Amino acid sequence: MEMKQKNSCYGTENNTCNNIGLLIFRLVIGGFMLTHGLQKLSNFEMMSSVFPDPLGVGSGLSLGLIVFAEFFCSILIILGLFTRLATIPLIIGMIVAAFVIHGNDPFAVKELSLFYLSLYISLIFTGAGKYSVDYLLRDYYATICSKFSKKK
Protein backbone atom coordinates (compact mmCIF):
# COMPACT_ATOMS: atom_id res chain seq x y z
CA MET A 1 0.00 0.00 0.00
CA GLU A 2 1.46 3.32 -1.06
CA MET A 3 1.41 6.18 1.45
CA LYS A 4 0.54 9.58 0.06
CA GLN A 5 2.56 12.39 1.52
CA LYS A 6 0.47 15.14 3.01
CA ASN A 7 1.03 18.67 1.88
CA SER A 8 2.48 20.23 5.03
CA CYS A 9 5.43 22.27 6.22
CA TYR A 10 7.14 19.00 7.15
CA GLY A 11 6.77 17.39 3.74
CA THR A 12 9.64 17.25 1.28
CA GLU A 13 7.25 18.02 -1.57
CA ASN A 14 6.23 21.42 -0.26
CA ASN A 15 8.66 24.34 -0.36
CA THR A 16 5.99 26.95 0.27
CA CYS A 17 6.65 27.08 4.00
CA ASN A 18 10.40 27.39 3.40
CA ASN A 19 9.85 30.24 0.97
CA ILE A 20 7.48 32.02 3.36
CA GLY A 21 10.09 31.54 6.08
CA LEU A 22 12.78 33.10 3.86
CA LEU A 23 10.48 36.02 3.07
CA ILE A 24 9.86 36.66 6.77
CA PHE A 25 13.57 36.22 7.48
CA ARG A 26 14.51 38.80 4.83
CA LEU A 27 11.83 41.27 5.95
CA VAL A 28 12.86 41.04 9.60
CA ILE A 29 16.65 41.27 9.25
CA GLY A 30 16.37 43.84 6.48
CA GLY A 31 13.87 45.93 8.42
CA PHE A 32 15.78 45.79 11.69
CA MET A 33 19.09 46.76 10.08
CA LEU A 34 17.36 49.43 8.01
CA THR A 35 16.55 51.27 11.23
CA HIS A 36 20.26 51.38 12.13
CA GLY A 37 21.12 52.69 8.67
CA LEU A 38 18.31 55.25 8.67
CA GLN A 39 19.50 56.65 11.99
CA LYS A 40 23.02 57.05 10.58
CA LEU A 41 21.73 58.51 7.31
CA SER A 42 19.48 61.00 9.12
CA ASN A 43 22.39 62.22 11.26
CA PHE A 44 25.08 61.88 8.60
CA GLU A 45 26.41 65.43 8.80
CA MET A 46 26.66 65.39 12.58
CA MET A 47 28.16 61.88 12.74
CA SER A 48 30.61 62.18 9.84
CA SER A 49 33.28 63.98 11.86
CA VAL A 50 33.09 61.68 14.92
CA PHE A 51 32.35 58.29 13.34
CA PRO A 52 35.06 55.65 13.91
CA ASP A 53 37.54 55.16 11.07
CA PRO A 54 38.63 51.52 11.39
CA LEU A 55 39.75 51.21 7.77
CA GLY A 56 41.81 54.41 7.69
CA VAL A 57 39.75 56.00 4.91
CA GLY A 58 38.34 58.87 6.95
CA SER A 59 35.34 59.16 9.23
CA GLY A 60 33.01 60.48 6.53
CA LEU A 61 33.81 57.70 4.06
CA SER A 62 33.61 55.05 6.79
CA LEU A 63 30.17 56.36 7.74
CA GLY A 64 29.15 56.44 4.07
CA LEU A 65 30.18 52.81 3.61
CA ILE A 66 28.22 51.60 6.61
CA VAL A 67 25.18 53.68 5.59
CA PHE A 68 25.38 52.05 2.15
CA ALA A 69 25.45 48.63 3.78
CA GLU A 70 22.91 49.16 6.55
CA PHE A 71 20.42 51.29 4.61
CA PHE A 72 20.66 50.57 0.90
CA CYS A 73 21.69 46.91 1.09
CA SER A 74 18.93 46.31 3.64
CA ILE A 75 16.40 47.63 1.14
CA LEU A 76 17.78 45.20 -1.46
CA ILE A 77 17.45 42.34 1.03
CA ILE A 78 13.86 43.31 1.85
CA LEU A 79 13.03 43.32 -1.87
CA GLY A 80 15.01 40.15 -2.48
CA LEU A 81 17.00 41.91 -5.21
CA PHE A 82 20.67 40.90 -5.61
CA THR A 83 20.21 39.34 -2.18
CA ARG A 84 23.45 37.39 -1.95
CA LEU A 85 25.50 40.32 -3.22
CA ALA A 86 23.71 42.73 -0.88
CA THR A 87 24.70 40.65 2.13
CA ILE A 88 28.44 41.01 1.43
CA PRO A 89 28.77 44.67 2.56
CA LEU A 90 26.67 43.84 5.62
CA ILE A 91 28.87 40.87 6.47
CA ILE A 92 31.97 43.05 6.15
CA GLY A 93 30.33 45.75 8.28
CA MET A 94 29.43 43.28 11.02
CA ILE A 95 32.94 41.77 11.00
CA VAL A 96 34.44 45.24 11.39
CA ALA A 97 31.95 46.15 14.12
CA ALA A 98 32.50 42.95 16.11
CA PHE A 99 36.24 42.42 15.71
CA VAL A 100 37.67 45.90 15.12
CA ILE A 101 35.37 48.51 16.68
CA HIS A 102 34.38 46.27 19.60
CA GLY A 103 37.40 43.97 19.47
CA ASN A 104 38.49 44.65 23.05
CA ASP A 105 34.96 44.88 24.46
CA PRO A 106 33.21 42.05 26.32
CA PHE A 107 31.11 39.55 24.39
CA ALA A 108 27.86 41.25 25.44
CA VAL A 109 28.88 44.38 23.49
CA LYS A 110 29.78 42.51 20.29
CA GLU A 111 26.93 40.02 20.56
CA LEU A 112 24.50 41.96 18.33
CA SER A 113 27.10 42.36 15.57
CA LEU A 114 27.92 38.65 15.72
CA PHE A 115 24.22 37.80 15.69
CA TYR A 116 23.61 39.86 12.54
CA LEU A 117 26.78 38.39 11.02
CA SER A 118 25.42 34.87 11.49
CA LEU A 119 22.07 35.86 9.94
CA TYR A 120 23.74 37.37 6.88
CA ILE A 121 25.97 34.34 6.43
CA SER A 122 22.83 32.17 6.55
CA LEU A 123 21.22 34.39 3.90
CA ILE A 124 24.22 33.94 1.60
CA PHE A 125 23.61 30.18 1.68
CA THR A 126 19.81 30.21 1.41
CA GLY A 127 19.30 33.03 -1.07
CA ALA A 128 16.14 35.09 -1.25
CA GLY A 129 13.62 32.34 -1.92
CA LYS A 130 10.64 32.24 -4.26
CA TYR A 131 8.96 35.40 -2.97
CA SER A 132 11.62 37.81 -4.19
CA VAL A 133 12.62 39.96 -7.13
CA ASP A 134 15.60 37.63 -7.66
CA TYR A 135 13.17 34.78 -8.29
CA LEU A 136 11.20 36.87 -10.78
CA LEU A 137 14.43 37.72 -12.62
CA ARG A 138 15.93 34.21 -12.53
CA ASP A 139 15.43 33.58 -16.26
CA TYR A 140 17.02 36.94 -17.08
CA TYR A 141 19.98 36.12 -14.81
CA ALA A 142 20.35 32.74 -16.53
CA THR A 143 20.44 34.40 -19.95
CA ILE A 144 23.16 36.81 -18.85
CA CYS A 145 25.21 34.02 -17.27
CA SER A 146 24.95 31.85 -20.38
CA LYS A 147 26.19 34.74 -22.56
CA PHE A 148 29.25 35.15 -20.34
CA SER A 149 29.98 31.41 -20.29
CA LYS A 150 29.82 31.21 -24.11
CA LYS A 151 32.43 33.98 -24.46
CA LYS A 152 35.06 31.96 -22.59
- The best one-word shape is globular
Give the topology string: H per helix, E per strand.
HHHHHHH
Compute the separation of the termini in Å: 53 Å
Sheet of most strands: none
Low-confidence stretches: none
Strand content: under 5%
Total number of β-strand segments?
0
Nearest-integer average pLDDT? 90
- Tell me the helix content: over 70%
Which value, in Å, is the CA radius of gyration? 19 Å
Helix and strand content put the structural class at mainly alpha
Q: What is the overall number of helices?
A: 7
Count the domains: 1
Blueprint (SSEs and pairs):
Blueprint lengths: L15 H27 L1 H4 L11 H21 L3 H19 L5 H20 L6 H4 L1 H14 L1
Helix pairs in contact: 1-3, 3-4, 4-5
Structure description:
There is one protein chain. By secondary structure, the protein is mainly α. It has one domain. It has seven helices and no strands. The protein has helices at about 15-40, 45, 60-80, 85-100, 105-125, 135, 140-150. Helix 1 runs antiparallel to helix 3, helix 3 packs antiparallel against helix 4 (about 85-100) and helix 4 packs antiparallel against helix 5 (about 105-125). The longest helix has 27 residues, at about 15-40. The radius of gyration is 19 Å and the shape is globular. The model has no long low-confidence stretch (mean pLDDT about 90).
